[in-house]
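Thread: 8-amino-7-ketopelargonate synthase, structure

OP (GT): Posting the sequence first so everyone is looking at the same thing. Length is 388 residues per the record. Can we get the C-alpha cells written out before standup tomorrow? I want them in the notebook alongside the other entries.
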Amino acid sequence: MFDFEAALKDIKNKGLNRELRNLETAQGPYSVIDGRRMLMMSSNNYLGLCNDIRLKRAAIESIRKFGVGAGGSRLTCGNFTLHRELEERLAGFKQAESSIIFGSGYAANIGAISGIADKSCVIFCDRLNHASIVDGIRLSGAKLVVYKHCDMDDLENKIIRYHTGRGLIATDGVFSMDGDIAPVDRIVKLAKKFNLMTMVDDAHATGVLGENGRGTLEYFGLKDDVDINVGTLSKAFGVEGGFVAGKRKLIDFLRHRAKSFIYSTALAPHNIAAAVEALNIIETGQQARKELAEKSIWLRSKLIKRCFDVPRGVTPIIPLMVGNVDTALKFSMLLYNEGIYIPAIRPPTVPKGTSRLRISLMASHSYDDMEFAVENLVRFGRKLGVIP
Ligand code: PMP
C-alpha cells in the first residue's frame, strides 16, 4: 500500500517539507503570526482589501440579510441575486459580454479548460503556468504542449509542429512565482495567425495592472482579443473566488459544462457582497494601483543595487533568486527570526535550482517597511553568500 512515512521522510530529506504558519490577526503590512508581530511580505492582498472596513461592512450587512452559507450549487438552490449582480459587474469590468463565478481561481481554471477542451484539442502552455492550468489541461484529456517561458519563437515552432485541429494557447497574465508579464499582445497575434483560442489567467493582474485595474489586456491596450479571461477574487479583491469572463456563448456553455461550477457549492453571499464592494473600490482605485507599482519598482531597484538577482519590472511579485533549497530556507528563517515574513519558494512549485524568496508587496507597505526589509535582506544575504 502507500508508504506515507517513507514519502514524508524523502520530502524532509530533500528540504521540501512545509510548515503551516498561523495568522492570529487580520492581514495587513503587519500581522501577528504564531504569537509574533511580523512584517508581512508574502500576501496577495495587494490593495489591502482583506481587512478594509467597507468590505467588512458589506459582508456583515449581507450576513444579516442572507446568512452565512449558500446552501447548494448555483444550479440547485445556491444562486443568490448577488451572484448575478457580481457576474454582470465583472463582465463590465473586464469589458466582456458575460462572466461566470467559481469557488476559487483554481476551480475556474480546471473548470474552464476541462469544460471546453477534450482529447481532440492541443493546448499550448507556458512552462511556468500555474498548476491549476496544467491540471485543467490534464483533466480535459487534451494534448499538452509546453513552450519555453514567454518564448514566442518556441511557441510558434511548436504551433507549426503540433497544431492540427482545435487548439488553445494558455498563459498566466502575471506569473505567480516570477512576477513577470506574459507577452499577451504577441500571443494574441500568433493565435490569430494560426486560428487558435486564447486563455489568460489574470489572477495576479486583476485589480493591479492597467489604468483601471482590468489586468494584462488593459496593460497592453487590448480589449476583447482574448477568448477566456480568468480572474480571481482572492488576491487584489481581498476575498475568495475565481471567475471567467468572455463571450456570452462561451459563458453559457461553461454553465452547462464546467464541472467545478456545476458540482460545487456556490460562494457564500457575504463573500460576494464583499467582492462587489471590492470592485467598487478597484474601479476607482487608480491611486493605490499607482502607489503599488511605484513601490514595486522602487524595491526592485534597491535590491538590484545591492547586487541581488532580482528582475526589473512593475508587478508586486518580486522574486529574489537564491538557487539552492537549503540556502533559501535558511535565508527565510533568518528573516523570520528578525520579524519579516518572506517565504522560501522551492521545487516543485518552481523548477529545480531556482529556489527563491518570493516578496509580495501591498500598496499599504511604507517605504520604511521596505527599507527595513532591504537592510535585513542585505545582512543575511551577505552572511549566506547570496550576495558578495
Ligand atoms: N492562477 C494563478 C496564476 C495563481 O497564482 C493562483 C493562486 N496562487 C490561482 C490561479 C488560484 O487562485 P485561487 O487562489 O483563487 O484558487
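GT: Both are above now. Quick notes for whoever picks this up: The mean pLDDT is 97. The pocket of 4'-deoxy-4'-aminopyridoxal-5'-phosphate is lined by residues 104-106, 109, 130, 132, 172, 176, 201, 203-204, 232, 234, 242 (CB under 6 Å).
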